[in-house]
Each structure stands twice: as C-alpha cells, then as structure tokens.
Amino acid sequence: MSFVGACIFTACVAGVLACAAGLALPARWSAPVVGALSTVMAAAGLAGGVAVLATGHVWAGRFPSVLPLAGVELSLDPLGAIFVVATAAVAIAASVYGVGYAAPSRAARALVPLFVLSLLLVPAAASVTTFVALWEVMALTSLLLVAAEHRHRPEARDAAVWYGVMTHAGLVVILLGLVLFAGHAGGESFTALRAAAGEMSPLVRSTVFVLTFVGFASKAGAVPLHVWLPRAHPEAPSHVSALMSGAMVKLGVYGIVRVGFDLLGGGPRWWGLVVLAVGMVSALFGILHALVSSDLKRLLAYSTTENVGLILIGVGAAGVSAAGGSRTLAAVAMAAALLHVINHALFKGLLFLGAGSVVSATGTRDLDRLGGLVRSMPVTGATFAVGALAIMALPPFNGFVSEWLLLQSLVHSVSSTSATLAVTMPVAVAVVALTGGLAAATFVKAFGTGFLALPRSPAAADAREVPPSMQAAMIALAGGCVALGVAPTVLGGALDRAVGVLAAVRDGSPLRHDGVTLSLSGIRGSLSPLMVASGLVVGAVVLLGALRAVGARGPRRRAENWGCGRSVQTARMEYTATSFAEPLQRVFDDVLRPDHDVDVSHRAESRYYVEAVAYRTAVRDAFETHAYAPVLRAVRWWGRAARRLQNGSVHRYLAYAFVALIVVLVVAR
Amino acid sequence: MSRAVVGFLQVVVLVAGAPILAGLVRKVRARLEGRAGPPIAQPWRDLRKLLGKERIVPEHTSWVFAVAPLVVMCSVGLVAAIVPFASTRTPFGSAGDLFAVVYLLLLGTVFLALGGLDPGTAFGGMGASREMTLAALAEPTVLLAVFALSVPAGSSNLSAIVAATLAHPARVATLQSVLALAAFAVVTLAECGRLPVDNPSTHLELTMIHEAMVLEYAGPDLALVELASAMRLAVFAGLLANLFFPWGIATTTSPLEVVLGMAALAGKVACLGVALAVFEVFVAKLRLFRVPELLAASFVLAFLAVTASFFLT
C-alpha cells in the first residue's frame, strides 16, 4: 500500500473509531478521545494531501465490495488534494477546539468525525456513485449537526429545514446532470466520463454543465441559492460552522471545477461568463449583507457567500480566458481561485472559532451587546484580529496574496481579446475592489465593536478567556494565516500541479517563484510578501528606536476621554455595530431596502408629551422576500388546493376510483 | 549608490518633506484668503512640540490603540520606499506593485479606524465609521485607475509604468490618461481627507471625519498620526506627479541623477500642493451623503479610462 493509501486508510479507521467513541464512551471521556482520534484523522488526511501535492503522483484505489452493485472508486489527484488539505487544516483546528467546546448531545459529538471524514473523501471520489454517496453522507451529517442545538434554540429547526431542502434540491440537480453525463458516456467512472466528454454534442455538454453548476452553486452558497447559509451557519455549533464554512462550501467550488474544467474539459465562453456573473453578484450581495448584519455569526456566513463569489470570479475568469485561448491567464486565474480556497478555509475557520469562543464566553452573538473583549479575552481577541485583517485582504496576511493574483489575472485578461471582455473585466475588477473596500468596513465593524471599546452588556463585561484547547486551535489557524501571507511561495508548486490537472487551462507552471518573490509567467507582475512583511517589521523597529532616541517613548499615563465637557463615559454613548454600518447602509439603500419602524407612544394626559420612542430597523434578504417567498406561497396554495380532494366522503373516493379506472382503460387499450 | 540607499533616501526625504508640503498648502491658502498664515515649517514645530510631551492614553484602551500609529506610519513609510519617487530603480521594485501600494495604504486606514473605535467615545466611532465608508467607496476608483494605468504599460509594476511613460511621452496626452488622471485626482482628495470631502482644519465635531477619528490621540502618538497623514498626502501627490508626469526621475542610481530626481519630485509636488491650496479656497465641504456621488463620478471616469484604453487603441 502506498503512503497516500495508508493515510486515507488511517483517516477512515480513525474517523469511524472517533464516531464510535463519541457514541459509546461516557461524556467525561468522550471529549478528549474523540478530539484525539479526530485530530489523527485530519492529520492523516493532511499528510495524504500534502504527499500528493508534493509529488504530483495520483493515488487511485478500487474497493468493489464496499458499496453493493457499483463499488467504491477513489482517486486523489493534486486538484482534489488542494481541497483535502484545506479541509484537513480546518478539521485539525476544529477537532482540537471541539475538546473544550460543550457539545449539545452525545450524537452531535459522534457525528462531527463522520462529517469530517466525508469532507475528506469527497474530493477523492472517482466515480459518480461514490461521489454522490459521499456527497449525501456529507449533506446528512451536516444537516443533523445544524439541528443539533434545536432543544435550546427553536430557530435551529427552521434553519435545518431550509438547509435540508436546499441541499437536497441541489443533490437532485447534480444527480440529474451526472446521470445524464454517465448515460451519454457509457460508464460511470470519472475516467470514462473524461474520455467520452469530447465526443458529446454541445447541447448535452452544456446541459450537464448547467445542471451540475446549479447544484454545486447551491452547496457553495452562491447567490441566489445562498438563503440556507446565513440560517444554517449561525445555528450549528461553532466548530461545525467553521467546518461548513471553511471546507464544505468549498466542495461546491470543487464540483464546479471538477465537472466543468476536468471531466467536461472546459467549454464555450458563456460558461465562464455565467460563472463570473454569479461570482460577481454573490461577492457584492454577500458583503453588503455582512456589512449590515449585527449578528456576528450571520455576518461571517454572509461573508462566506462573498468569498465564494471571489473564488467563482477566479474560476469564471479562468473559463473565459481558456475559451479565448489564453491559457496562461486562465492558469493564473485558476491558481488565484484555488489559493483563495485554502486561504479562506484558514481565516474563515479561525473567525468562526473566534465567534464560537465569544458565544461560549458571553452567550450572545449580537455585536450591539458585545465590546471590550480584547482585554478580557486576549488570545481570542488577537487571533480574531489576525483573521479579520486576513479576510480584509491586507498585507502581510494570506488574503492579500490571493486577491492580488485574482486582480492580476483580471487586469491582464482585457488587453488580449474581444469587446465583451473589455467591458466585463473592468466591471469584475471594480466588483473585487468594492467588495474589498466593503469587507474592510465590515471587519473593522466586527472587530472594532465586538472586541474594542467598552462592554455593552453585563454578559460582555463578565467574559472570561476560553480553555487552552480552544485557544490552541485559534492560534494554529492564525499562524497559518500569517505563514501563508508571508511565504505563499511554499504553495507555488502545489498550485501548479493542481492547475495542471485541468486539461482546459493547463499551462506549464503559471506561478514562478524564487522563494521570496512571486511572479507570473507571461505577465509582468511580481509580489514579494516576505519583503513587504519584513519591510513593515524593520520599519517598526527603526521607528521605535527613533522615538526612544528622541525621548518620546516614556511611560504611559492613563487619563479620562475627552467628552465635550461631560465627565462620565458609559457604554450607552458608544457607536454600535448598527450605527457603524449606517452610512453605508444609507448609501446602498436601493439594494438593501431596510425596513424602518418608528413607534411613538404619548402620555395619557396630553398628545404633546412623548412617553417613549421605539425604533426598529431590519434588513431582509431581497432574494428571500422576492424570489423564495412567492414560490413558497405557491406551494402552500397548491397544498391547500390538494387538500380539497380529500374531504372524507366515500362517494367522492369511489368517483376518483371510477375516473381512474376509465383513464387506465383508455390509456392501456 | 545602491538601490537600498535610494529607497532609504526616499523615505527620509518624504518624512522630512511631508510636513513642509502640509505647511505650504496651509500658507498658500492663508495668503489667498488674505491672512498671513503660519510659517511653512510650522507643522514641524508642532511635531517637535508633540514629541516632547507626555504619553497620555485614554482609559480602557487596549494594545490596538497603542499600535495603530506605528502601523500607519510603517505602512506609509514602506510605500515611500516602494514607489519610484526619485529613481525608477527602487530597492523593493519587485516587492510590490501599485496594487500592493493601495492595500498597504488601506492597512493604515483600517488601523486608524480601529484606533478610533478603541476608546469607546462617540466621536471616535463616528469618525471611524465615516472614514471606512469613504475608504470602501473610493476603493473601486483607485483600483480602476491602477488598471487604466497598467494597460498601456502591460504591467501594474510601478517602475514599468513610469518607464513606459518615459519611453512614449505622447501617451500622457491620450484620452485614457487624462480620464485616469482626473479620477485619480478626485480619489486623492478623498483618501487624504481634503476639501470637498473632509476639512482638515475643521474643529467642529459633527463635520469631522479624520480629525474625529484621531481625537483621543495625544503627545508622541498624535505626532505619528499627524506625520503619517502628511506623508499620505505627499505619497499621493508624488504618485500623481510621477505616474502622469514622470520627467526628471532618475533611471539609474547614480548620485547626481538621484538628487536631480529628488529635486524634480519636490518641484512637482510643490506645484500640486499650490494647486490643491488654490482649489480648496474655491470649494466648500460637501455633505457626507453627497460624497458618494462625487466618488461615483470619479468611478465613471476611471471606468471610461479603462474601456477607452481598449477601444481607442
């Protein structure tokens, strides 16, 4: 058995054992044992993924006896390995974090390892049956985990219903697409599909692409199929949210890339343009809702939609460039998208774990009731700050590198081809830029009002730092964000190999690097994150030295704030998350359409005296109110109409049977 | 002279010259308004005074408040080393391009906004909220202007853009260049907090943006914040000067050329400073919610610059 095979075998065994331990052991023992076994599983997955990425050798295995009729076919190539590595990185942190996190029930603790195992295996599936079976295990385990805390919070049930419906509707469409594909190919292994894709008619190819794209986009949380995401992520336990947002959502992207670029081998330009358009809408819509959300986990969930949008912009740009014949640009765009997959897994995993720590320390997710946590929870505060800076795409953190690559690929796509691109690409750059700007505002809000200033509620004032295992998980992910921000060149070879899997965009090696500087082949552009980071550090050292030399670095004295003449400052005077986002909410009034509600109650004696003024504002998801609500209303109406068929009268049922008999006689004559 | 020395010199010249630029703008504006105005070196005297004061920080602030001035100063200092101000051969030429410069400057803005939120006062929060609003809305224009500039050069590398303009001087007079210049100029006003977006000399709390955000800084910390914001103006002015009128910049690292390049830069930036002062005399501050319209207009200019560079060549 090869090394990669051994890793995958170890991961499977450890995952099943962890699941059994979670079910069988008493609560006191199960947390550390499940945590240890899950960590082993994730570490084995990481080792296997890294081995494939480092060597470029594809590992394949067939297990005919595991699944009846079809058998299980697995194969891990560098493209899948990128997603396995991203998943495993989040999973290691989530497993360690889970030790200290109070699981809502025994079943919830046992399900997490199973969920992680399915996440690790989906990118290794190499036949339609295997893929769909693993996909469904992933969907079901995550669905149960979303519903895990339903006893404490009734909203979790609502979220689980939404998620269940969306994920299964997505599965149906994916299944239709893949079955159609397999039917025309005459075989269901990915090798057979790949071989047959070339001879299929354009109509069949496009149908397969559109069906699978819709299904995978619903899993990825792309607009307009994102509605489950801001419901399900906040309700799941926080380390599960981290896994869902950091890893599971990316598998939607994996599906799009695997089917569209690998199995179908790329397609006409409109495929790329569709993906690009969906990506742009998702990015902007997601970040606008994240901006106005004051629920910390809901904010992070919407920001996931935004980041998936950015990834899809990269994938779409790769498709457009590949169809236009410029493979170099396509390869760079695809590398940017894949790098962002890894980066987003790290920083979004970190941010969700941070949010989980906040929830477990204060019991609230409402930013308007938080504040001051950076002093009472220094580790959570500092690591959350790293995650926030990384997601804002600021140097020297990892988000900046992928955003830079994405911008490079977009900027250079314009000069080479048609007029459509000359308009599309500037729009895409503007969308990426506006998204980046709004993301900066969003995460300044999230960190600034959640962790800085004075606590806005007694719960926030009494917060205590979380246990060491939870801290260790966050520190590890924060370390990853910094490491990949400073030395993204370590991934250069891995990205080259992953892009090399895709026949449609294959191009030698898109990224060149000499260990310090990252440059692109065929494009004059280079970036050296290491030099930027060391420049900042050297600058800080020189500056501190200079300040000390002029005697401006003495001891600090604390004094009261300046307050326009008033003396006591209370938390009621602070800006809240809602007020911070208000100017931008007003600027984007037409898109967000917030509801305002002012209630003025007067005193009984006279209408001229006001007793109280209540002001409520809420931003509803426009797609939910305008696209989903009518459909749900129609379904409900149909259900009510169908109820009239069954009114309890035996005569009527006899009449139905009679009509049915006549119809059968006529049809089957 | 080696490249590292050139980069170091650029930082030194910018640190030394930025307060002078701020003083020059103030002086010219005062004279145009019929006042005598403070001496041109007044900002330096203010900085010296602030540096000698005791370090006072508000109650309840955390490490974020303390590191914000350092980060702001370091990010703008690093930009001063990357951008080809005196010579196209800067030491960090391959370290960062125009995109890196934009994001480094955003890093400073983000930290100042966090520093504004940290003391928990209403003004700090208000300033931070407004500053981030404007930064978010200015971002698309900045990056599209970068895009427009990098199309003719085929690269977003700053030295490559400057070298391309030097090689083809006629490009400066093309439509896309003029449009990009206009867009970049508007964005400079917004990013540096000048009229009509923000009034740097106001002390009426409700209209302040930048000043409200840094209200709680005092002593040496305030000196850093003030110096960094003066350097930000100088960096933007220098970018504007060298991206659109690069003549005079050194293409080697010979000491004579570098010194001439510095002198040329100083001259160009001083001209821009005078132009800014004259402009500020004639405009009034816009209402906050009218500023997005101004930024949208500059966005359209930048967008046209990009598409024009494709359709008209």
The H-and-E topology of chain B, N to C, reads as HHEHHHHHHHHH
The rough form of chain A would be described as: globular
Low-confidence stretches of chain A: none
The end-to-end span of chain A amounts to 61 Å
If helices are DSSP runs of H or I spanning 4 or more residues, what is the number of helices of chain B?
11
C-alpha geometry of chain B: globular
Number of domains of chain A: 4
Q: Please report the distance between the alpha carbons of the first and last residues of chain B.
A: 39 Å
Helical residues, percent of chain B: 55-70%
Keywords:
heterodimer; A: 669 residues; mainly alpha; 4 domains; three-stranded antiparallel sheet; two-stranded antiparallel ribbon; 25 helices; 69% helix; B: 313 residues; 11 helices; 70% helix; 1% strand; globular
Condensed summary:
With 669 residues, chain A is mainly alpha-helical. Chain A has helices at 3-24, 27-55, 78-100, 106-121, 128-146, 155-185, 190-197, 202-220, 229-235, 238-263, 269-292, 296-323, 327-362, 373-376, 378-391, 398-413, 419-450, 458-461, 468-486, 492-500, 529-549, 577-587, 589-592, 622-643, 650-667, and strands at 59-63, 72-76, 511-513, 518-520, 523-527, 556-559, 595-602, 610-618.
Task: Describe the protein in words.
- The complex is a heterodimer of chains A (about 675) and B (about 325).
- Chain A has about 675 residues and is mainly alpha-helical.
- Chain A has helices at about 5-25, 25-55, 80-100, 105-120, 130-145, 155-185, 190-195, 200-220, 230-235, 240-265, 270-290, 295-325, 325-360, 375, 380-390, 400-415, 420-450, 460, 470-485, 490-500, 530-550, 575-585, 590, 620-645, 650-665; strands at about 60-65, 70-75, 510-515, 520, 525, 555-560, 595-600, 610-620.
- Chain A contains 25 helices and eight strands.
- A three-stranded antiparallel sheet of chain A has the order 3-4-5. A two-stranded antiparallel sheet of chain A has the order 1-2. In chain A, strands 7-8 form a two-stranded antiparallel ribbon.
- In chain A, α8 (about 200-220) runs antiparallel to α10 and α13 (about 325-360) packs antiparallel against α15.
